[in-house]
């Protein structure tokens, strides 16, 4: 991936990616390789692997071995949509859920990931690893309760939603984060390392005497929520400096803007309603566009016509019409490094369903990103699509029926 190549003004972009989430439902390595082959076929060049979340830890750490022995599997999984989904302030485990009673898990060894990186490189695809921190830490906390402040053991998350368990923001938390990111840098050669940063609830920090003292020592008011956004920003800056010492750039979801982002980072803009792309680029920060339109875990049309998903989403035609400069002021267009589709897997329980959700929308996004304004008309795109879908079938990929 040409890390610093600036895009042409026609909307063709150097970072053209997709994110896989093997945490909510594990994606076997053979399917990850298949995705790499598919990306190469459609001229995409980044596979973002989301390797840790509340519901499972998927990266083998040699320094923190309980992440694989204890955090890589959960005892059961919520069935269907969790009750009361999205109700603010309610712990996901307290939703009115039904569970399947089946253990679910998996992880990738460092040897497997190194081999994947080399395989992908041979295909012109960069693997961008993500370890989500300081939020989405429930699974890690199940393995190492001391990564929180009160050390209370708990289970790996079994439901969907945002868990309140976060990484402590003082030295033990920093040591953990740097150990893991160090191992990540040993395995992956991507110029970007993603540290997540999204959806980090601040309640644990705001009620922990250690974190309260930490913000006070930073000259901030421990009773003010914004102080904890600044604490997250401080944490992000520590990670950015650590990654810079390894020759890497920090990439994070747009929440890393909230307390003020450090120099030299890249933002993945996903929250349309906070005008993330505009906020980042106005601050001179390069972005990768990943708005909700590109959340391919949402259905490809009206929900009544589709299998259970997180909600109604973008059609093929809407994806093909995507403007990579959406939300970006004219004068900051050169800060758009690229774009990415997301395949969060709460409602993608197996590879067959993964391909159904991903394709053919991913082909549409690939053309948007690779050809920019020079892409075919939608009518011509549709005419050529059956032949491209046949190529994917040769890889064992069967997507959604064509419109
Ligand atoms: C996200 O969808 N939590 C980045």
From TrEMBL:
Enzyme class, spelled out: hydrolase
Gene3D superfamilies per record: Glycosidases
GO biological process, one term: glycosaminoglycan metabolic process
Domain Glycoside hydrolase family 20 catalytic residue range list: 14-369
The UniProt record lists the keyword Hydrolase: yes
Gene Ontology CC terms: membrane
Keyword Nucleus: no
Transmembrane residue ranges: none
SUPFAM superfamilies in the record: (Trans)glycosidases (SSF51445)
GO terms of molecular function: beta-N-acetylhexosaminidase activity
EC number: 3.2.1.52
Reactions catalysed according to its record: Hydrolysis of terminal non-reducing N-acetyl-D-hexosamine residues in N-acetyl-beta-D-hexosaminides
Active site residues of this protein: 199
Swiss-Prot/TrEMBL keywords: Hydrolase
Family indicated by similarity: Belongs to the glycosyl hydrolase 20 family.
PANTHER family: BETA-HEXOSAMINIDASE (PTHR22600), BETA-N-ACETYLHEXOSAMINIDASE (PTHR22600:SF57)
Name of this chain's protein: beta-N-acetylhexosaminidase
Natural source organism: Cutaneotrichosporon cavernicola
Lineage of producing organism: Eukaryota, Fungi, Dikarya, Basidiomycota, Agaricomycotina
């Amino acid at each position: 991936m040409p890390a610093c190549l600036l895009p042409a003004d026609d909307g063709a972009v150097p970072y053209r990616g997709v994110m896989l989430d093997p945490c909510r439902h594990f994606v076997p390595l053979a399917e990850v390789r298949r995705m790499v082959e598919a990306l190469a076929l459609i001229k995409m060049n980044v596979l973002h692997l989301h390797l840790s979340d509340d519901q499972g830890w998927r990266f083998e750490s040699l320094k923190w071995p309980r992440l694989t022995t204890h955090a890589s599997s959960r005892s059961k999984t919520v069935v269907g949509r969790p009750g009361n989904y999205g109700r603010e302030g309610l712990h996901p485990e307290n939703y009115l859920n039904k569970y399947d009673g089946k253990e679910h898990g998996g992880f990738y060894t460092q040897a497997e990931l190194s081999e994947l990186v080399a395989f992908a490189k041979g295909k012109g695809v960069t693997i961008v690893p993500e370890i989500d921190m300081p939020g989405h830490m429930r699974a890690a906390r199940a393995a190492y309760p001391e990564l929180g402040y009160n050390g209370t053991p708990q289970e790996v998350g079994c439901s969907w939603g945002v868990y309140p368990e976060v990484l402590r923001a003082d030295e033990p938390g920093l040591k953990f984060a740097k150990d893991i990111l160090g191992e990540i840098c040993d395995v992956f050669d991507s110029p970007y390392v993603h540290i997540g940063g999204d959806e980090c609830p601040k309640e644990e920090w705001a009620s922990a005497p250690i974190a309260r003292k930490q913000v006070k020592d930073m000259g901030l008011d421990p009773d003010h929520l914004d102080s904890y956004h600044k604490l997250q920003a401080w944490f992000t800056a520590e990670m950015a400096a650590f990654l810079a010492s390894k020759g890497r750039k920090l990439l994070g979801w747009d929440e890393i803007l909230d307390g003020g982002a450090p120099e030299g980072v890249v933002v993945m803009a996903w929250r349309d309603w906070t005008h993330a792309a505009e906020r980042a680029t106005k601050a001179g920060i390069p972005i990768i566009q990943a708005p909700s339109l590109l959340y391919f875990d949402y259905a490809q049309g009206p929900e009544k016509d589709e299998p259970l998903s997180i909600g109604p989403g973008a059609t093929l035609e809407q994806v093909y019409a995507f403007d990579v400069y959406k939300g970006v002021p004219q004068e900051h267009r050169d800060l758009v490094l690229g774009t990415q589709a997301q395949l969060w897997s709460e409602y993608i329980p197996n590879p067959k369903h993964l391909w159904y959700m991903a394709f053919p929308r991913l082909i549409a996004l690939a053309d948007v990103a690779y050809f920019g304004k020079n892409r075919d008309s939608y009518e011509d795109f549709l005419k050529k699509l059956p032949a491209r879908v046949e190529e994917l079938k040769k890889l064992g990929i069967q997507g959604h029926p064509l419109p």
